[in-house]
Specification:
mainly alpha, 10 helices, 3 strands
Length: 235
């Protein structure tokens, strides 16, 4: 399936003077993949993306090379870029890895969490609640990732975040399809449970909350009407 420049509705971000063009293009495309603005199966040309972003093909090519290394896109020989389709098997594997890596990252962060960190996490969770109330699919995804990223980065020695973000990038385009069809994104705010565990310095409780948060999201997606047809490639 192809896509023209006019078909895409990318979430744009300002370009700070401190960023080089290829860095800005990378961050912009990365954000759009994280929140699922570029759908699975869509094929794009480097020239088409350059047209949208009003840049030369070179920074687009460099950005896509980085994203391909992270597993977010596949670059074909004909210079088209494909956001890979999801399969049931790949989805299960990515979700299992999320649980494994993110519970590990949360436990590693716990000894480094301060009261000011908890206050910032509460602020980020409030932003998620606002996005849910407004059914803002972009902010639901990006704010949720901000919450988890902030928590894991409390550990100054953590090295797992690039691996975790690679999983988010691969899941983002598919997850958006499911989230956009949900009437309720979640019934239990597992972030509140995680925050309570952080305040109590409760390591098992934190692990349970993060795992439950991920599993709730997985269950919601698997219960979306027609999702199995999507996995079979007939949706």
């Amino acid at each position: 399936m192809g896509s023209r420049a006019s078909d895409l509705r990318l979430l744009m971000i300002d370009k700070p003077e401190s960023l080089k063009t290829h860095q800005w293009v990378y961050q912009l495309l990365r954000n759009n993949l994280l929140c699922g603005r570029i759908e699975p199966g869509v094929a794009l040309t480097i020239r088409g993306l350059a047209e949208i972003l009003d840049v030369s093909p070179m920074p687009v090519r460099e950005a896509l090379h980085r994203l391909a290394c992270e597993g977010a896109v596949e670059v074909k020989n004909n210079r088209r870029v494909i956001v890979p389709r999801m399969t049931a098997e790949k989805f299960a594997e990515l979700c299992d890895l999320r649980i494994l890596l993110e519970t590990h990252a949360a436990e590693g962060a716990l000894p480094h969490i301060t009261d000011s960190d908890i206050a910032e996490l509460e602020r980020l969770d409030a932003r998620i609640d606002q996005a849910v109330d407004q059914h803002d699919v972009d902010d639901i995804a990006l704010c949720n990732q901000d919450f988890h990223r902030y928590l894991y980065c409390a550990n100054p020695n953590q090295i797992s975040l690039p691996l975790i973000e690679s999983l988010w990038l691969q899941l983002g385009p598919f997850s958006r399809i499911a989230i956009s069809k949900l009437e309720k994104v979640y019934l239990v705010d597992r972030h509140v449970e995680a925050l309570d565990a952080l305040k109590q310095r409760n390591r098992p409780g934190l692990r349970r909350a993060i795992e439950a948060d991920i599993r709730d999201g997985i269950a919601s997606i698997r219960n979306v009407d027609g999702i199995h047809d999507y996995f079979r490639g007939v949706a």
